[in-house]
Amino acid sequence: MTVVHTLPPAPDVGGPAEPLLKVEGLTKHFPVRGTGFFAPKLVARAVDGITFSIAKGETLGVVGESGCGKSTTARLLMRLIEPDSGSMIFDGELVGGELSLRDLRRRMQMVFQDSYASLNPRLTIADSLAFAPVVHGIPHGEAMAAAADLLEQVGLDSATVLGRYPHQLSGGQRQRINIARALALHPRLVILDEAVSALDKSVEAQVLNLLVDLKRSFDLTYIFISHDLNVVHYIADRAMVMYLGKIVELGPVDRIYAAPAHPYTRALFSARLSSDPERRTVAVAIEGDPPNPINPPSGCRFRTRCPMAAEVCAAHEPAAIDLGFGHSVACHLHDPASGHAEARAHV
Amino acid sequence: MSDPTPLLSVTGLNVAFQTPRGTAQAVNGIDFTLARGEVLCLLGESGSGKSVTLRALMRLLPEQRSRISGRVTIAGEDLYGLPERRVEDLRGKVVSMVFQEPMLALDPVYTIGAQIAETIVRHERVSKAEAGRRALELLEKVQIPSAKRRLEAYPHEMSGGMRQRAMIALALACNPAILLADEPTTALDATVQMQVLLLLRRLQAETGMAVIMVTHDIGVAAETADRVAVMYAGRIVEQGTAAQVLKTPQHPYATGLFASTVHAGLKDRRLDAIPGAPPDLTALPPGCAFAPRCARRREACDVGQPPKIRMADAREVLCVDAVAAG
Asked: Where in this chain does the record put each ABC transporter domain (chain B) (predicted)?
């Protein structure tokens, strides 16, 4: 199959050693109305000063429970919402500086969880796929030809699908179309926000296989956001664990899954369901629900549910500690100088 | 307790809905029984008919739009032969239900305590004070912290996990013999999901109630079920003990479903996805509904419905390839 690229792939500006994306201190606080007219204004610290980078060609998995800020992070990266502070450098170029938002969005695309809500119900599939290329200056005829080609690339029969509307397709087909649309501008980074979570298991496996294939043929980098730890283990090279707007642990998937360092990561992993009826889970790892990001706990935000919490955890917010091999954790337990009685050095 | 007749039995249940696109055959002749104290999981993907089956067991399907045939017997009574008034007596008292989304299932304008007390008063004709006392006991039983204060809470004032606990308390208010649970933990976060599953397991063991749990998640079935029935296109394609069905599935759909579920150890390997998509329920094929996606399809699969074969280990499989007991 020949690939028709009506838009040339975005150029590799910084070379292979330059991270594709560097995020520094990204923050978003949402004002929340208090209960009652004279109640003080509250602030939800959805994303609170996160710093990470992503290398060219890798897949970064982002995991965490509801309210941890993973979807807000995705929207901040796409600039669908404006950050309060923090900077983003895409392939060596400052976003909003050398790199305009229009060019950023050509290079970075997103696939959402709800395959139906993310397509315009009044546009045919062909029109949806050609829309962005036309906006970016591709002649209509060429954009239509490219749309047909893209459908074949995501495993759909273009002859039957092009003229259809979103409601005439199944959830799996629609999600393939959302992926095709994200690729229409030939981006370099694709953010997949729970993109397979709404699909049935048998269809989810098809789409995961497709994502692996497309990554290779389009030379892509993925940010893969999911609540499903098994899927992240399968698809990601590195994993980033978030809790209440903070990154608590970040590192290679093999290391984190073999030896999770943060008490929250450990709790999250031990809450995975068994698939063997003869070896069931016997005890819960942590009690309670994730707290609200409005007025989060002082110090370490996990301390209210943490079995290892000590005084220092309320007093000081833990900084990220480097454990080596690109693995870092924000927990006083791993900092011998923190003053936590159980703290131990990890060399 | 040693009553040989099952608590619930379903024979030849069919449910069809009139839709603008034609008749959707949601459930197509399923049979199963539920013994006292047993936990049965109906496992299947969207459109497999698992939730419709559950609703049929409480006669909750809209009577105008649905065509229901077959026989459902609960505690010796023919459910679809009863007058509506008697069915209302059964609901909550003998059979009760927990839904996926407690925010939609609970009444937003009454406190949790009032909703539980109302159910108790309706079925047991006790005083309001007595019902209130029982409601507090129930909230403590489902491990809601500061239960006394929570009695006065409205559903929107609680977190997702607490709401689901409150709904379980409501469902258990009159000590039902059968609890029907429709994806009770699907909307919850991972750490909370495990808490609620362990709670359900403990309550089941304490009360000895029978449970039918509907889920799409193999893990939920593995954590809770005594027996598992795998559904596809409105039929039970495989039914047996949890260990039989989850560890050595026989039906090609069950095998494919487990193979395509991502788990540890698959990294860097291609997933064994089932090709294609589930069938359109308004145009089911005359033969096996899974045949178009099945790697073992042969001519016999398309001729008529596959036979229900009882294998040597007593599990039932709906497939021409299954080997019957000698």
From this structure: 10-258
